[in-house]
């Protein structure tokens, strides 16, 4: 099978990692229950920031957010390793900016994700992901953003939403927790 994965907030818990970094940088201790109740992708509001301040904070924190010890979601690394061992083709499709491509690839490898150079795509806008996904003739594609999956819903690729607090109102097949290999394959066959 050909399986495509978004990275941030699909395979790795990037926003929560960033939330901890914001707390630390701003000397605050805002609890995870606040994070878990967010209905938007952006995380700045609980810190009392405007959209503009939030966007600046994100930019200023990006180096730390991307390249420190952001945890993968439980089971994600193990599942992708097993898919790779079983001969399935794993594609990564991330909207991280051009300048972050090579380092992101290296980071993924260092954290145990199986990456093949020719199956790693980055630097496109969210709404441009659809073109790459179509060209790759994927069987399955996984992302946390419903807007991206909706652009694909009429195509042959079967899409799954990675469950997040900001996408719970969307009715789509979803992955709540990354299952083990056998359970995952069973879920895809449904
Ligand atoms: Mg994402």
From TrEMBL:
Residue ranges of coiled coil: none
Keywords: Hydrolase
Gene Ontology terms, MF aspect: 5'-nucleotidase activity
Catalytic site: 6 (nucleophile), 8 (proton donor)
Keyword Hydrolase: yes
EC number: 3.1.3.-
Highest taxon in the source lineage: Bacteria
Record Pfam families: NT5C
Enzyme class: hydrolase
Record carries keyword Transit peptide: no
Cross-referenced InterPro entries: 5'(3')-deoxyribonucleotidase, 5_3-deoxyribonucleotidase-like, HAD-like_sf, HAD_sf, Nucleotidase_putative
One of the GO BP terms on file: deoxyribonucleotide catabolic process
PANTHER family: NUCLEOTIDASE YQFW-RELATED
Family, per entry: Belongs to the 5'(3')-deoxyribonucleotidase family.
Protein name per the record: Nucleotidase
Organism listed in the record: Neobacillus bataviensis
